[in-house]
Specification:
Glutathione_synthase_C_euk; glutathione synthase; single chain; glutathione biosynthesis; alpha+beta; ten-stranded mixed beta sheet; 487 residues
Length: 487
């Protein structure tokens, strides 16, 4: 990591900034129940306004596409059956989807109402421009941290103007407005009110967040809950294990939670990996059956759900590859005009399936440093780079190929000026920082539900260019924000 650790900024400034982060909930819970501030950049990155506006315009169209793909159940079942044979978790998801919706000969509508809360992650490649890294349709969190990072840099600009001006990438740039927390909550509130109204009930809608046991990312989650409470919702938290014995069915497929009552919105911050459904004490003959059936039970009720099985399948790496390799005109199947389809195509990076032909091509013709190998996993740690790809491909059995995809590796612009990263109240100068921008969107039952036509704000995560894993939670990433330049 290209960094220097001497104190360049007065420690008083670093401590004040770190305390601001803790005080505003920008933190992770530790094993001993203390809080540690999230690592952050002392001043924001820059992006050309034209690039940002393009992403801002195209991302809700991507969400419209993904929403409509996710409700095309025949397409999901047909196009993803091979990857289900190659990946046990994917097989379980597709099986649950089949239980929820039937098959093409006996299709039935699940009672759940789809609430698509999506984060589409981009990198601004030096050569190819801004391109999608991945779609996140389940547990797509950190909108609260994204908004807080923008607020933090505004605080730095006011409270420590000399520090801010010294380290901001371009002192003439303008902060990009970020309402990620408030708009995501607004979209959820809209969905909750509509479900409540469908039952002609009075009172506050109730929001259920499904969480992992011993979750350390609770502050990002609680920030969303506090904002939802401000917007008139009651919020509760449960694990799948708790829900397995606490849910029941009310009149007209109303979802009822023990000692709480009717539920209007279910938001999954768990469910993207096998371990979220694992309950060893149940001693199940089929691993994870009970808790995954709990998720199916939720979808069989009239409740707004993010993420549905359909949404999780539609935002998978395999679906990203299928949409990338598909001609733009085929997007018409899901309600996109050719203009909209071409806008989506403009931000999709090249992808290739893994098969004997592509393996031969990769080993003998490809520039290996310009590709990344991905499986279906969510979160960090699921990518293979460079020369390691050939070794990994040689280890895969043919029946595993469909669980993997090759994707063009993105090389984003390095920040023109060094910056200061702060981790554990310690500062370090980073000379080769690169950034990833995630744009949030919210659609309910196929329609945008934010005050900005479905767009809801952004999250910036930056990392040293020399590091492959850029997650803030699991990697060398730091929280950042965005300013715009006209150059």
């Amino acid at each position: 990591m290209n960094s220097k650790t001497q104190n360049i900024i007065p420690q008083q400034v670093i401590e004040d900034a770190s305390e601001w982060a803790i005080m505003h909930g920008v933190a992770f819970r530790q094993a001993d129940n203390t809080a540690k501030h999230c690592p952050f950049s002392i001043a924001p990155m820059t992006m050309e306004r034209e690039v940002y506006e393009h992403l801002r315009n195209v991302t809700p169209i991507i969400t419209k596409l993904i929403n409509n793909v996710s409700e095309d159940h025949d397409f999901l079942q047909h196009s993803l059956r091979d990857v289900a044979k190659a990946d046990p978790f994917f097989e379980r998801l597709l099986s649950l989807h089949h239980q929820a919706h039937g098959d093409s000969a006996n299709r039935h509508a699940a009672a759940r109402k789809p609430l698509l809360l999506m984060r589409t992650d981009f990198m601004d490649d030096r050569q190819h421009g801004a391109k999608v890294i991945e779609f996140n349709g389940i547990a797509a969190g950190m909108a609260p941290f994204g908004q807080r990072a923008s607020e933090f840099h505004a605080y730095m600009q006011t409270q420590w103007p000399d520090t801010y001006q010294n380290w901001v990438a371009d002192p003439q740039s303008t902060p990009a407005i970020n309402h990620g927390l408030t708009q995501l909550a607004y979209g959820i509130a809209q969905a909750g009110q509509k479900v409540k109204a469908a039952f002609a009930e009075q009172g506050k809608p109730t929001f259920l967040m499904v969480v992992q046991e011993n979750e350390d990312n609770v502050y990002d989650q609680h920030l969303l809950e506090v904002e939802l409470q401000k917007q008139g919702l009651r919020t509760v938290r449960r694990t799948f294990k708790q829900l397995s014995s606490q849910l029941s069915t009310g009149a007209d497929k109303r979802l009822i939670l023990e000692n709480v009552g009717a539920i209007d919105v279910v938001y999954l911050r768990a469910g993207y990996q096998y371990s979220d459904y694992c309950a060893p004490k149940l001693n199940e003959p089929v691993c994870c059956h009970t808790l995954s059936q709990t998720r199916l039970f939720i979808e069989q009720h009239h409740v707004a759900v993010n993420a549905t099985f359909s949404q999780q399948l539609a935002t998978s790496k395999t679906m990203q590859m299928l949409l990338t390799t598909m001609p733009a005109k085929e997007y018409a199947r899901w309600g996109l005009s050719l203009h909209e389809a071409n806008l989506v195509k403009s931000v999709l990076a090249d992808m290739k399936p893994v098969n004997p032909s592509s393996i031969d091509w990769f080993n003998n013709q490809a520039d290996k440093q310009t590709w990344v190998l991905k499986n279906q996993g969510e979160g960090g740690g699921h990518c293979v780079f460079g020369e390691d790809i050939s070794q990994k491909l040689s280890q895969l059995r043919p029946q595993e190929y469909d669980a993997w995809a090759l994707m063009m590796r993105l090389f984003p612009h390095e920040r023109e000026k060094p910056t200061i990263g702060v981790r554990d109240t310690e500062q370090s100068q980073i000379d080769d920082l690169v950034s990833e921008i995630g744009l949030f969107t919210a659609f309910y039952d196929g329609e945008p539900v934010t005050e900005f036509d479905g767009y809801a704000g952004y999250l910036i995560r930056s990392k040293p260019a020399s590091e492959n894993e850029g997650g803030i939670h699991s990697g060398q990433g730091i929280l950042d924000s965005l300013t715009l330049t006209n150059s």
